[in-house]
Design brief:
about 280 residues, alpha/beta, three-stranded mixed sheet, about 25% strand
Length: about 280
């Protein structure tokens, strides 16, 4: 998961237009930098309708648990666009069958035990600071999932039906039957679609992030202080490329499992985000 921020708004030239001149006008009142464009006949009204420009406070590329949870968290601070290259259900999260480990029954369990179990399971190679952060923040993240509608199984007394799996010294695995990932994905999808400040763009494929490169600056992966203004996104229903502008862009596109011939990953795991930002 990668967050790329820019502290100014920029209107970028519509994709593939032959721009003849650019005039920069800084709107101090809104701290916005706007690029006014003059273009040739490709920039006529019809073409501009096809190649739309969308402006959001946050742009989230990827719609698994990372992308959706980020969108829900930041929606209180501004408008959010979520880019999904297929349907919202098609993500690694959906296919995860196991549960989530979190210290829940504090009568017998605690953070120190969970940290120790994790370090042992990782043969002491794991980054202890990262392990401690994940373990200590897990209960709060579980609460957020429940607030977003996720239902974890409970026993006859109304307490969480905790399981014990390999590497754990205590019962601390929360689950929903044997399809915990699907329950989380479905619940977050409902929360996403019902949120008034979040707009989901399904069947939209992000093809390139927008940086100073698109303003005529030579940018490589070694360039310092790279700013991101959003992304160019292909609408797979119309085959038109649209410009998405944002103050903050999150890359949450998952892994690269499907670049290999044999994998248990779903077809969407093709490393698009890694390719865009590398």
């Amino acid at each position: 998961m990668i967050v790329i921020s820019s502290n100014i708004w920029v209107r970028i030239p519509i994709f593939d237009l032959n721009v003849r001149c650019i005039k920069i006008d800084f709107l101090r009142r809104y701290n916005i930098a706007t690029l006014f464009l003059s273009s040739d006949t490709l920039g006529n009204r019809i073409e501009k309708k096809k190649n739309m420009t969308h402006k959001f406070d946050f742009l989230v590329i990827g719609s698994g648990i990372a992308g959706m949870s980020f969108a829900l968290k930041v929606a209180e601070k501004g408008r959010v666009a979520v880019i999904c290259k297929t349907g919202l259900e098609e993500a690694n999260t959906f296919y995860a069958q196991g549960g989530i480990a979190s210290v829940t029954n504090t009568l017998v369990d605690n953070f120190e035990k969970h940290i120790e179990d994790t370090m042992i399971a990782g043969d002491w190679i794991s980054d202890r600071a990262a392990v401690e952060k994940v373990v200590r923040e897990a209960p709060g993240q579980i609460k957020e999932l429940i607030d977003w509608g996720v239902s974890f199984d409970k026993d006859e007394n109304g307490k969480f039906d905790l399981h014990k799996e390999g590497g754990h010294s205590e019962f601390r695995i929360l689950h929903h039957q044997d399809n915990t990932g699907a329950e989380i994905q479905d619940s977050l999808i409902r929360a996403l679609k019902n949120h008034p400040k979040i707009k989901v763009f399904e069947n939209h494929f992000a093809i390139e992030i927008i940086t100073q490169h698109h303003l005529g600056v030579n940018v490589t992966r070694h360039t310092g202080n790279i700013e991101c203004y959003g992304a160019y996104v292909l609408d797979q229903n119309t085959n038109h490329i649209h410009t998405f502008l944002s103050k903050t862009t999150l890359i949450a596109t998952g892994g690269v499992g499907n670049v290999y011939r044999t994998t248990t990953n779903p077809p969407v795991a093709t490393g698009d985000g890694i390719a865009m930002v590398y």
